[in-house]
């Protein structure tokens, strides 16, 4: 019975990791994924997750797979693609059915300024993505109903100017300071919840955050210690907290500073 039922599943997950599987198994994996997608008869998919780590991969075939799931009114897309030099096609940035998306591309340029139209997207998570201030602004302008934005170890970007009244939650994880990013500006007058978190990575140097306008904030969790503050934590952190509190009206959450 399963021989026929599997073609109707609405949640499809594939993963290939060269640390766990020998590269010689890749053709078998590719054949299985391709056969599964071509045989899937559902007109809509709830979730498609594809994880490919550390192997050379046919970019045209990857395009074909994504086109296939996009045609099935996909709602949740999760991509962990450690694939050399893959360029997302222009049509990837135009999808009316996507509600949630999680992208991990291993410190590469994932978005190069294409016009974006994700009209149903409410949740976006970008991990290890290189994206500039201008690009993130264009990207967000194409997500009119986006409610949640999560940035995990993103590169290049040094400010967020969020004017959309729908975006209520922002989470920033392991934002690293570098030569061009000593400060990170946040201007988000409609934001309700803000989390800035540094996980247990003692080597990570975090930029100083400036809050331009977060006047609608009701919850804030600042759980990190900028490396440049460590010698003077008692003086620096009250200053950061004071600046944040001065710019808001209704905070009922908490601010916490963790010292590694």
TrEMBL record:
Residues 62-199 form the F-box/LRR-repeat protein 15/At3g58940/PEG3-like LRR domain. It holds the Pfam family LRR_At5g56370. It comes from Rehmannia glutinosa. It comes from the Eukaryota. This is F-box/LRR-repeat protein 15/At3g58940/PEG3-like LRR domain-containing protein. Gene3D superfamilies: Ribonuclease Inhibitor. PANTHER family: F-BOX/RNI SUPERFAMILY PROTEIN-RELATED, F-BOX_LRR-REPEAT PROTEIN 13-LIKE.
């Amino acid at each position: 019975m399963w021989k026929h039922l599997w073609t109707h599943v609405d949640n499809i997950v594939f993963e290939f990791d060269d640390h766990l599987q020998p590269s010689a198994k890749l053709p078998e994996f590719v054949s299985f994924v391709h056969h599964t997608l071509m045989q899937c008869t559902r007109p809509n998919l709830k979730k498609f997750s594809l994880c490919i780590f550390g192997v050379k991969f046919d970019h045209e075939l990857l395009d074909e797979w994504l086109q296939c799931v996009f045609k099935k009114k996909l709602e949740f897309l999760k991509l962990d693609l450690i694939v050399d030099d893959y360029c997302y096609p222009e049509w990837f940035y135009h999808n009316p059915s996507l509600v949630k998306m999680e992208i991990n591309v291993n410190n590469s340029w994932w978005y190069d300024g294409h016009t974006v139209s994700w009209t149903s997207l409410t949740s976006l998570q970008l991990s290890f993505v290189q994206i500039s201030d201008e690009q993130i602004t264009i990207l967000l302008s194409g997500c009119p109903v986006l409610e949640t934005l999560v940035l995990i170890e993103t590169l290049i970007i040094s400010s967020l100017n969020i004017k959309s009244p729908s975006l209520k939650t922002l989470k920033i994880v392991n934002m690293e300071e570098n030569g061009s990013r000593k400060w990170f500006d946040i201007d988000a007058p409609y934001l309700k919840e803000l989390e800035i978190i540094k996980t247990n990575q003692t080597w990570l140097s975090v930029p100083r955050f400036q809050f331009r306008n977060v006047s609608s904030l009701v919850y804030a969790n600042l759980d990190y210690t900028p490396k440049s503050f460590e010698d003077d934590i008692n003086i620096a952190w009250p200053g950061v907290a004071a600046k944040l509190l001065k710019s808001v009206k209704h905070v009922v959450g908490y601010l916490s500073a963790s010292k590694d």
